[in-house]
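Your task
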Amino acid sequence: MARWDDGYVTDVVYTNTFYRETTPAWLAMSALLLGHRPPDLAKPFRYADLGCGNGMSALTVAATSPQAEVYAFDFNPAHIEFGRDLAERAGLTNIHFIEASFADIAAMLADALPAFDFMVSHGVLSWISPENRAALIGIVGQRLRAGGLAYLSYNVTTGWAGMVPLRALMRMLAEASPERTDLTVPGIWALLDRLKDGGAGFFAANPALEARLATLRTQDPRYLAHELLNQDWHPVMFADVADAMAGAKCTYIGSATLAENIDAVGVPAGVRPLLAETRDMRLRETLRDFGSAQSFRRDIYRRGTPLLPMSEHHRLLDDVTLEWTGLSAAGDITFATPLGSMTGNPDAYRPLLNALEAGPLPIRQARTIAPFANRPIVELLQAVALLISAGYAHPTLPNGAPPAVRQTAAGLNRAVAEANTNGAEITRLASPTLGTALNVDVTETLVVSALLAGHTAEVMSLTTTLQEQLRRGGRTMQKDSKPVTDPREATEIATAMVRHILDNRAPLLRRLGVLER
């Protein structure tokens, strides 16, 4: 394996993933809910993605915030090439893809890069060497401006302790194979099955691993290659990260997984008194991780941590608008929390969801909705945090989606469809209203692109166009996960897909700025 990779998997590129928690809209809302002044998204700002992978998160930020200047760094040239090509096809001029290691970035002269309002690094910290980790945090210390937000996500020791020796074995198996790393995954699973079936005592001694391994088996082998098969894989304790970030003049303010900031759903009832008795932030968060057996943290740090005065805090909150994401809640309104799935009280959450479905909902208006009217605002904010965390709602960008922003987002969405037509597998579309990317399938990207290009919304014509695009990408219609060989049946399936998109998805996509109204 090439020496430049520091033992990181580079023989297979990372998946085309997007992480909502890394966007300025999400981080600004999170900081505000936590009582801190966020950077003003209505003004020009600078954003850095450290370890950007194929760049979908950074591209979405650039496309939905044309007033921003976006920098995307990765040491893998394949990732940088992919992201740069997509940016060029999208016509984005406010994003810079830079091939550089963390050591390279740390060594750059002070005037080589600007100061940033947002610096994010998703899924990197616990997959790199201690030296690279120090360089990464040092970059944040050098480049994050006063009042800026930093986001770090990483594996936590409390949730991975039993997996450490098994992961080491999996890495050994990958190293011993001459195949590309992702192609070793089936053989690794087969050997682990033989080991367990052979009576290996390790599995009996660690029964909780069964559920984790079952989940991992469902993942894309490319993801597993990067998740588990690097040379360096070091789950860490929160206190170690917080101490390092303190040296970079950054202080932890809360989790980007919003439900984790609410003790009532974040830790067992018997652990909550311990948190209430603990003033030390490092100890409190460590107790929280033990309470929920935390395996993955999404931490938000701020350079400078004065809490907002109450009057300004309420004014900034009132100016926030929430938008419905289209997630159905016809039955129970459920939330994923660190303690498992929770069902919300319909008397509290149903009025909020009804208001959201009716149209954009400013916080100032939500404060008047029963049962939150004349109640402490913290009750509404907790409900809002849970609705956002569960995907029912999302904060909108402060300027909405003016024509210029719709144009840049549409450029990225057309580029995504073009890449998919050529065989890529990008299942996201940028929403200029929300400043995030929506989860879709490849078919939807192709239909949306045709509509953005001015194609008529006539079903049969769109169906013909869709089938042509799928053929160009080497794809066929599927039924029960098998290719459909009968042309008539394939056309029927494609027609049903187009009808579903036009009737059920297009209205929401117009509402979220993806399609013109």
Notes: The first helix runs from residue 24 to 33.
